[in-house]
Amino acid sequence: MLSAILVAVIATMSTWWVSHVITRTWLYPLWSGFLVALAMGEPVVGMKAAAYIQLTYLGWITAGGTMPGNLMVAGVFGTALTLLSGADPILAPTFAVPFSLLGILTWQGYMTLNSIWVHKADKYVEEGDLTGIRMMNWIPSGILSFIFNGIPAFLLVYYGGEYATKALAAIPQYLIDAFSTVGALMPALGIAMLLTYIGKKKIIAFFFAGYFLTVYLHLDTMAITIFAAIAGILVYFFTSNANSEEA
């Protein structure tokens, strides 16, 4: 019972925006999955499962408003189900991905309903009611996060993974394939939308530089980040010097 309650709290906090004010690490399986593992009393195995899930979503990004998968749901539910089933941690992504795809729907429902409180808050703004504004920002979104994420997480841990596994198995394969296809297209759409912002004469060269460093020189993300930081510093100093001379 205690483990189920703790996992429900973790699932709620991972999506509720209040937790992100402190740290955005709640978003990532490496942290949320680790907390789930602690709550379920298997930190080492759970951490391994969370790490495998994190690797699956290493390139996860919501650029352009797209969401290829619900990372928070994947980390919490994937880790919990791995521990409940006693499976090898390397199989954690196979549990996490279906939950992540279904999590897209719950996220859309969550955000759609949250828009109601925004309009309510607007009315309180017109009335100058600060207490009402704060209540609309805090309470309803937390309750919805508990309904969409906390309760399913509690039921998963309390009743065991057998029911969740059966529920996932009952989903038609064509529906899972459809979610997978949409999830694969979403990152491309997000990148395309992102390019509309960075596709400027002074910026686009850096994008292609990063692309060729990755494809042809096979540099990892850390190496490219270091090069990007150096380039950014040089551009800043050269730009500052040029502006000073003009002044």
Automatic annotation (TrEMBL):
Highest taxon, organism lineage: Bacteria
Pfam families: EII-Sor
Transmembrane regions listed in the UniProt entry: 25-45, 57-83, 95-117, 138-159, 179-198, 205-238
Recorded GO CC terms: plasma membrane
GO BP terms in the entry: phosphoenolpyruvate-dependent sugar phosphotransferase system
Protein name: PTS system, mannose-specific IIC component
Locations listed in the record: Cell membrane
Topology class, membrane: Multi-pass membrane protein
Main location: membrane
UniProt entry tagged with the keyword Nucleotide-binding: no
Keywords recorded for this protein, A-Z: Cell membrane, Membrane, Phosphotransferase system, Sugar transport, Transmembrane, Transmembrane helix, Transport
